[in-house]
Amino acid sequence: KKHHFTKYGDRGMSLEHEINQSNQYYLSKGIAVIHKKPTPIQIVKVDYPKRSAATIKEAYFRKASTTDYNGVFNGYYIDFDAKETKNKTSFPLSNFHQHQIDHMKACVRQNGICFALIKFVLTNEIYVLNSEDLFYYWDDQFKGGRKSISKATIDKFGYKIDYSLNPIIPYLKAVRKIILKYKEI
Amino acid sequence: KKHHFTKYGDRGMSLEHEINQSNQYYLSKGIAVIHKKPTPIQIVKVDYPKRSAATIKEAYFRKASTTDYNGVFNGYYIDFDAKETKNKTSFPLSNFHQHQIDHMKACVRQNGICFALIKFVLTNEIYVLNSEDLFYYWDDQFKGGRKSISKATIDKFGYKIDYSLNPIIPYLKAVRKIILKYKEI
Ligand SMILES: [Mg+2]
Ligand SMILES: [Mg+2]
C-alpha cells in the first residue's frame, strides 16, 4: 500500500505542481488557505493593441525576495519554500538565499510558522524541516560549520511526509506537530 | 499640522507605492511582515540568449485569484486588497471580484484578518473596512441591495486612516482595533 502511494511522486509531476494540488485540496476542504506567490517579473515593454489584451513584449525574471508559499491555517500564518535536491545524503544550504532566510526569520519573530519542504528527488522522499532547525544550520555554516544539512539530521529533526492520494503531499500533518511543539507549551 | 501630513497623499505617489513604503517601514521596525504579491503573468514565449538573462518575449496579464497583500502581524494572518475610487459619495462594489471575496471569506474561516483599504482619491481619504462589513454589503447586492457602499457607511463602520510621515499609511492602527474587536472578546 505504501508502495502504491509512493508512486505519486514518480509521475513526472513537478514538486510545485504536487504542492499546488495539495493546497487546492486543503482549500476545497476548508482546511487551509495557502497559495504559491506568482513569479516576480520585471516588465519593460507592453503593447496595447486595439481590441485585444495588453501583450508584454519584454520582461525579465526577478529574484524572489521572499518565499514561494504563504497563507493561513487555523489562525496560524504559514510561510515556506519548497526545495529539491539530487543529492542523496545531504541538503546543500546553497538552495536557500540569505534574503529568504531573513524573510523567514522576520516572520518567525511575528509568530508565523515557517519551514522548508525538502524533496530528495532520487529517493522520492519529502521532509518538512522547521525554520528553527534550518536557521541553526544556516547560521552555523558561517561559523565554520558544514555547507549542507545531512539527510540523517533532517531525518532526525524534520518530519518525513509520505506521499498520499489526497492531498498528494500532506504537509500540514507536520505543521500540526510543529504547532504542538512550539506554540502550545 | 494635519494639513501638512495630508499632503503626502497628494504627491502623485500611487496608492500601491504608499502601501509598499508603509510595509517597508513596518518590516524595518520589526512590526509586521506584509508584502504585495507579484502581478500574475501568463508567460508564452521566453528567449534564452547566450551570456545574458532569459528574456520574456510574449506574456499576458492574468487576473489575480486572491488579494494583493498578505503577511503576518503579531501572530495574526493579514490579508487585504487596496482599492481606489474617484467616486465622492460611495464605493462601487464592482471594484471587487467574486473570487477576491471568496478568498477573503476562506481566510476569515481560518481566523485570518481580512479587510479592504479604500482610498477616495478626490478627497484623499483612506479607510480600512473590515471584511465582515464588506461581506455584508457584497452579499446584500445580490438580494436587491445597492451596488455600492455609501461613504457615510464606510465612515461609520470603517476606520479612517490619516496620512502620516512614517508610515505614510498607518493602517495597522485599524488592524489593532479590528483584532481587539473580533479576536479578544
Ligand atoms: Mg522554491
Ligand atoms: Mg488591488
From TrEMBL, chains A, B:
Catalytic activity field: Endonucleolytic cleavage at a junction such as a reciprocal single-stranded crossover between two homologous DNA duplexes (Holliday junction)
Keyword presence, DNA repair: yes
Transmembrane feature ranges: none
Pfam families to which the protein is assigned, alphabetical: RecU (PF03838)
Any GO MF annotation of the entry: hydrolase activity
The UniProt record lists the keyword DNA damage: yes
EC primary class: hydrolase
Residues involved in Mg(2+) binding: T66, D68, D81, Q100
Note on cofactor: Binds 1 Mg(2+) ion per subunit.
EC number: 3.1.21.10
Organism domain of life: Bacteria
Keywords of this entry: Cytoplasm, DNA damage, DNA recombination, DNA repair, Endonuclease, Hydrolase, Magnesium, Metal-binding, Nuclease
Family: Belongs to the RecU family.
General function of this protein: Endonuclease that resolves Holliday junction intermediates in genetic recombination. Cleaves mobile four-strand junctions by introducing symmetrical nicks in paired strands. Promotes annealing of linear ssDNA with homologous dsDNA. Required for DNA repair, homologous recombination and chromosome segregation.
Protein name: Holliday junction resolvase RecU
